[in-house]
Design a protein that fits this description.
homotetramer
Chain lengths: ~300, ~300, ~300, ~300
């Protein structure tokens, strides 16, 4: 299987309440993103509130998404698990439903060391039957895939690439400069860094905003690949404005990104705006700020 | 139900591998602690590797421990969950097995705010049928129960107390000085702070070392309650030596505490020394250091 | 020279503006603290805004304080310097004025390692002609005196003790359990921890609040030494109330402690309430909270 | 005065010991950088060990550098001061010697808030007679110029630009997207990020490695400005190799950058390798790694 390149949105999870899927919303959102030209869909990541959902619900979500996507784009499923055994079980459910690859986050309760991280992920890859991506998100998991650890794992034939949400571009540069990794993909998390990561050799991104305006991000990627820096920058500026309003609040990585995305999804009539506990809905002042942003955007969806 | 006071060990979880309980070890360990005079047993906490175990295994552990303990001491069960729904399901399993109370850790993936924390825990207490303790461990969960949030929750009749593993004694003092909380218990996590917490009004502790030498900790508690500071200090010094060897490595809160405890449990023929992934066994140099410590202790188990 | 034990207030620095001493205020404050029974005075520490003052002003302050104190209590002077050379020069000025000992903070710009810290402090002690105390304040300097480093330095005959403002009582316990350090003094910084540090073997404290109510802190120390825990706790509770109002705002270690102390010093007609830049004066809501606290205290100064 | 664009090395400070300048080394280093085509020289920054030097030595350094540079490139001088008064005095010394602008770091002892930061810097700009740049380095100072604070200061006519060493490219993007700041320059600190910062609109950099191979960095800048991405990337890869060897050790921002630069400067016969306390010289393994790197570079100085 080839590693995915381009734009792979971390799909938000439409919910009716903490333990009930919004099935119609799921279908709408999938169509919206595929129509926007995305190159894959990543479910049950941070933006997908994976860790907040019961394992039963996660399994149901995987099945529904695979059914609705009908193979038009590859589906990647997050394994954000503190328990090794739960990760194995979830990976098997993903395989049965037709997921293309899993995305492995370090176990995130204990403050672990690199040998513990390597041992966990190496064994997990042995015990599952799907290709894997690594997912680096130290602000939430408390541990980095240090470059040496990343290199050892990225050299395994089962590992297709890495998604880096650290926001640390010195680190991302170090990954890109790891030697002997042909075919591996390097996807950047924070969408504010999409353009610059592509300019130094990154191969794609996992931008939360591609739930909302997928074509903007696809345009940045396509323009950067063609060397049309002016076009790429014009969409980069839209993304900066989106991030400063829709994600505003208490810092990237917290629930502000998620509740902002859900607020806009509701405004677009795509799905409900419910976030699973502990996250809360967007409140007054931020709602107004987002409304203002959406007004300024108008019909400019990048088509 | 009365709030527990005194020494409540966070029971280590004897394992044969990542997903198999060491049933004989569990029985041995329970008898060892109860014979040592402990005032309760806390299972599925950090030391119990709760987050590393599958939910099926956690449920089995709860049942086995309740059966073996036979009501001789109250059993407290940790709810260290990132998913609200999983927490509710686990609490119901705990109730069915005869657990006396649950111990609620904040959801630990997202970096959440106090209103999100309060909403999660408040609703959880509504939906479950057991009394609850709060468990503050910001180094692992990324969020504090700020004094004001703690006060609101500790005022609920269902909430019996708080276990604080922050190691921040300014904070612990603030908790003790919250007004209007009769009958609430204040348990300190780090055993190096047990004596001093009792000297300023704390009502007990959750020391990992009480898996190993339960009577030492019971002696500190009893001596402090009687005002026999000299005796209390003599056992405090033993605890300091234990912590500097058995827990050595990479800092409190990481796997060093757990793998050190398991190493000693095996040396005492109580149970296996396997820790669930991602944690690793004690390695060479630390093993020698612990052996030296155990030699120096000899038969001094505090009886 | 004997190491100081008991209560050593970190004297606030009365100022008319950023570079002018309030000489009358200095005299008032010294008399106020000595009348309150303190065992020494520590100038140019964090509470004394040492790093905010020009070296010329620091030299003038040292001279004035030594003259006014007239040898009634030992004077300790902080060396909070990022430059080795400046530290040497300041120590010489201190010696000339009659200071009894200097208090050495790690250099605080670079993120340094233990060997760099040890080399800096070891050489500084060689080049100066006064006894020294170590001052551990990692929240502000970014580096700990790790127990092993502290032990090496505390074994030097020129080093009389350590002041620990980390607030980490596990660490403070480790210091107390260092072996072979007769005569060394262990002073705790945060006054909320004064009572408990004394209960486990600490030998004194450096409480900011002793600028205001010196007798309260002296009473805690004296009562704890005599084993009168009830009396000690009654003053501990006053200290907790003081710290929750006078130091409120943005966390211990920031300017809230300092501007709160200066606000009360002005209310007591001891000196001006000016803090050197970058610190700001107490603002509206906090001022009201402190006024309420002072009303509740009335004339209860601990005599 | 126009804001500087392009490559402005943070000049290392050649020293014979903690308080003696290496005057010949200073002259050599200035010629080396100017011959390499740099657009300015920034002295007394982090790489220049500003905070480790006495104020007398800093003043002497400023004078020597201005004399030797003879106006061929603008000289910028760092004000890394915890004391407002010392900053004012140092700025006056800089003006007298012919420095073109000062570079203002936040006061770095107390953990300060934005209003305290703004007040300090705003008043400093009022009291000095030179244009200013802001210098953001939160890892060492403990405080950010938050975008709103930066915007207020960058709008002052006396403020020419900002140097950002945070390594946080989301933040750097936010700065670039601040509105209404014509003529302001945005210089990036970490040289690993030079290329990508230029690709999104940055106007220059302050790379430590430009003490060693100034032409490499000038080539990146010139190539990026002409849109020759291929040439820019080829020098970017050299810079990544330099940073992974010369700066290896304990993380950017610590002394590893500085002692690595000094080791190479000595190998190039430009100056001594002494670093002021607390920093230490390069030790065995790192020395070998750097030797290997220098061998691989050979005569490739970018000309």
């Amino acid at each position: 299987m080839d590693a995915v390149k381009g734009i792979v949105p971390p799909m938000a999870t439409p919910l009716l309440d903490d333990d009930t899927l919004d099935l119609e919303g799921i279908e709408n959102l999938i169509e919206h993103m595929i129509n926007g030209g995305v190159n894959g869909i990543f479910i049950l990541g941070t933006t997908g509130e994976g860790p907040s959902l019961s394992h039963t619900l996660r399994t149901a979500l995987i099945r529904h998404v695979c059914e609705r996507a009908r193979g038009r784009v590859p589906i990647l499923a997050g394994l954000i698990e503190s328990s090794f055994k739960e990760a194995v079980v979830m990976a098997e459910a993903a395989r049965e439903s037709g997921v293309h690859a899993v995305v492995i986050t370090p176990p995130f309760y204990f403050n672990i060391e690199q040998d513990e991280l390597y041992g966990f992920v190496r064994q997990l890859i042995r015990e599952i039957s799907l290709p894997a991506y690594l997912y680096n998100n130290p602000a939430l998991t408390g541990v980095y895939y240090e470059p040496e650890t990343a290199a050892r794992l990225l050299n395994l034939p089962e590992v297709l690439g890495i998604k880096d949400s650290s926001g640390n571009m010195v680190y991302f540069n170090q990954l890109l400069n790891l030697s002997g990794l042909p075919g591996v993909t390097f996807l950047v998390g924070p969408e504010q860094l999409l353009l610059e990561s592509l300019s130094i050799g990154g191969t794609g991104g996992v931008p939360g905003g591609a739930n909302l305006f997928p074509r903007w991000y696809v345009n940045i990627y396509d323009a950067a690949m063609k060397g049309d820096l002016e076009k790429a920058r014009s969409y980069h500026e839209k993304v900066m404005k989106l991030s400063e309003t829709v994600y505003s609040g208490k810092g990237y990585g917290s629930g502000n990104v998620i509740n902002g995305i859900k607020y806009v999804l509701k405004a677009m009539n795509i799905c409900n705006d419910y976030s699973a506990r502990p996250l809360l809905k967007v409140s007054g002042e931020k709602a107004e700020m987002i409304d203002g942003f959406l007004n300024s955007v108008g019909n400019d969806n990048g088509e």
